[in-house]
Amino acid sequence: MPVKNLPALLAFLLLSGCASSDIWGWYVIDPTTKSGWINIKFLINGMGNTILISLIAAAFSIAIGLLVALPALSHRRWLRIINRIYVEFVRSIPLLPMLFWVFYGLPIIFKSMGLNIPIDPFWGAVITLALSDSAFTAEIYRSGIQSIARGQTEAAQTVGLSYTQTMRYVILPQAIRRILPPLANQFIYIVKMSAFASVIGMQELTRRANELVVSEYRPLELYTFLILEYLVLVLIISAGVRWLERRMGADERN
Amino acid sequence: MAENKIEMIGVNKWFGDFHVLKDINLTVKSGDRVVICGPSGSGKSTVVRCINRLEEHQSGVIRVDGVELTNDKAAIATIRSEVGMVFQQFNLFPHLSVLDNLILGPMKARGLSRAQATDRAMHYLERVRIPEQADKRPAQLSGGQQQRVAIARSLTMEPKVMLFDEPTSALDPEMISEVLDVMVSLAQDGMTMIVVTHEMGFARKVADQMIFMDGGEIVESGPPEPFFTAPKSGRCQKFLSQILQH
């Protein structure tokens, strides 16, 4: 949906609220009142953590995804099998159970190994999102790299480049143009899934809305506001992705 | 330095069940210009691709400048550094400028400085007569220019042998001669060359050994004079008459 329709949607929701004032109670986030304004600030303050968790998780996912994708391109069968096992396994785990396992289970494993690595809600969320997303990132890398014609690898080999040099100087710079738009798209998935971090106590957008619902008991207004917060965030990212695609496309034509 | 630049002895190769190379024997001496022709699917490209290990042979011996091709990575690297290759589809790196295409190998594989590599690259771009295109991207050049850049890219590695795999087959007719001219001048300078091509005018001019392949076998080989005027095998006669008619 184009960004320019957003104000219209907001207006519609607010007007429909005014029209049937018996079910809506927008006072809870009315910026003209002191308590409403405090509530709005409380809700929006979760944005920082949502963005931070998503960005760090995406960075890890991009790195892990590449490491997972490279064996898939090997001549050696067992390396390809390792890739398949990782991708199929990680891809089939629902995010919430994985989050519980990382947050509640992983510290027990660390402890049994004599390691004292506490996992706080922030890193629990980051690790889970990064792992979960890395299976998809790996597939994006694989198809992107495979889309570069074999002749490029052969030409690189015939001018004496090693495997690592071929990847670094010839294949990845070309693949990245095809990989970046779907990777950026995948970032939207991370942003949305970061809402699950609320259940392990991370103070992000969803957690904040939940806490306010408990004290104010206005779920309809507060969750509407929450959805709009994600909507704004994702629309901004989408606009960024489209800008990136246009730029990459223009570059490709040169 | 071995006198025989390339030796293939009893080389066989299969793609799955398909027997692409059948008992190939070939000796190329320093300075030899060998031209391989034959119908498509005859295995001529595969022969060339085996020499720098873009394809793996399953039996027989291939030696390049005295070094045998095995799974030994160091041997493969040594051989590839001595063998240049020009592809039908050019295979230039589209994300790099012409100059960067040429300096990548010398800098990364040979350890030259950027300045040294650039000097060398410009020398070979002048050799193929397009130094003025150095800063362009490959896609901005014509097919003939791209193939000349590809030849220059191979030359910057200063190989002892050059392999050409149908270098003019993807070119528009009016661009073929500019590429062949470069190849002729290379031959005149004494470069050892193996050329897979259907350009029989070029073959007559430069080849000192002609090879005709069909069905994965070397059916006929020898100096160009008897090869063109009195081919012994029926298959070779038929092939030559088909491509020389036009």
UniProtKB/TrEMBL annotation, chain B:
GO terms for molecular function: ABC-type amino acid transporter activity; ATP binding; ATP hydrolysis activity. InterPro entries: AAA+_ATPase (IPR003593), ABC_ATPase_HisP-typ (IPR030679), ABC_transporter-like_ATP-bd (IPR003439), ABC_transporter-like_CS (IPR017871), MetN_ABC_transporter-like (IPR050086), P-loop_NTPase (IPR027417). The keyword Nucleotide-binding applies. Gene3D superfamilies: P-loop containing nucleotide triphosphate hydrolases. Keywords: ATP-binding, Nucleotide-binding, Transport. It holds the Pfam family ABC_tran. It comes from the Bacteria. SUPFAM superfamilies: P-loop containing nucleoside triphosphate hydrolases. Residues 6-240 form the ABC transporter domain. Belongs to the ABC transporter superfamily. PANTHER family: AMINO ACID IMPORT ATP-BINDING PROTEIN, PHOSPHONATES IMPORT ATP-BINDING PROTEIN PHNC. This is Arginine ABC transporter ATP-binding protein. It comes from Neptunicoccus cionae. The lineage of its organism: Bacteria, Pseudomonadati, Pseudomonadota, Alphaproteobacteria, Rhodobacterales.
